[in-house]
Amino acid sequence: MSAVENTRELRRILALPRRAAQDLDALAADMTRLLSVTDRCPGKAGPDGRCEIPECKSPMTLRRVQALALHDIGVHGGALLPVGVGEGKTLIFWLSAFVLGSACVLGLLPASLIKNAEDARATMAGHWLIPKHVRLFSYELLGRAQSASELDNPNFQPDLIVCDEAHRLKNLGGAACARRIARYMAKKPRTAFVAMSGTIMRDSLKDFAHLAFWSLKEGTPLPTEPRELDDWASALDEEKKGVPGQEYQTVEPGALLQFANAEDLKRDDRTAARLGFRRRLTDTPGIVAAAGEGEDVGASIYVKAHVYGVGVDTDLNFQKLRTEWARPDGKLFEQGVEVWACARQP
């Protein structure tokens, strides 16, 4: 069985700086002072830290994870942010353009979140330095055929791309939207990039290695050579049950054990390498993972199902899905396989 080798790329990653200890409460206070305004809304902070005016309810102080993310975006020219629901992604999304001083910004969101993002911008502008020149685009629309030349427009060449739900870009060989962003980043590799998603790191290194490179450039803690990335993924990814022949494709951690410390090495080699690399990943400046400051609840929800017959509304919904490639809530699909998968959902 083969093993990961001690290559130049591995040595580059081992030599990357690690995040220095910071007083995150002080950083949050400093970043709040730098990025907030006081004369646009007369409201004050209520007990929940949001504006007391019911029509506003904007957050009035940055959370630690928001402050650290915006700090890293400003210092490193981008960031990879595995931040989940309830951790303050919306404010990071809007303030990143101001922090970087970007002149032309593309904001990518799922179509179902565009309206919410625009409403949040209007609300937050009363308390924060929210720029007005961010152009919002949905993943679904950018993936449509009519948008094929959108990023070739000489009048719209973003110097920052900021993405919420960035796992929509994980499949470079599939989704048209991902391919178009990849072509633009290859053409303009110094474009600043901010990728946010609470799920992007769950499955495989190959799902987010390109996002880490777009965000951190030469500071990425993942290999940039495809064959080497395949070996790392084979050695570090969690095994998926039911994949035929998987046992013959596994690569031993080998040189990746250099990430492990003495405590890690008391475990088996694969676990030791995973623990060590996870630490290397989260210690990398420009990668900020939430530490549970938000409203996301790590508990299971159990649903008891009841089966009913097909009604008139269901027939209308399927007509909309077939003719418009859209769900009842308005979410658009860009590929036929997504329509098929949606139609098969119980």
Description:
With 346 residues, this protein is an alpha/beta fold. Helices cover 36% and strands 7% of the residues. The chain has helices spanning 8-14, 24-35, 64-76, 89-100, 114-124, 139-142, 176-187, 209-216, 226-236, 269-282, 312-324, 336-343; strands spanning 78-81, 105-109, 134-138, 160-164, 192-196. α7 (176-187) links the parallel β4 (160-164) and β5. α2 packs across α3 (64-76) and α3 (64-76) packs parallel to α4. It is globular and about 60 Å long. The chain starts with 7 loop residues before the first helix and ends with a helix.
Q: Which characteristics define this entry?
A:
7% strand, 12 helices, alpha/beta, 346 residues
Short synopsis of the structure:
With 346 residues, this protein is α/β, with parallel strands linked by helices. It has helices at residues 8-14, 24-35, 64-76, 89-100, 114-124, 139-142, 176-187, 209-216, 226-236, 269-282, 312-324, 336-343, and strands at residues 78-81, 105-109, 134-138, 160-164, 192-196.
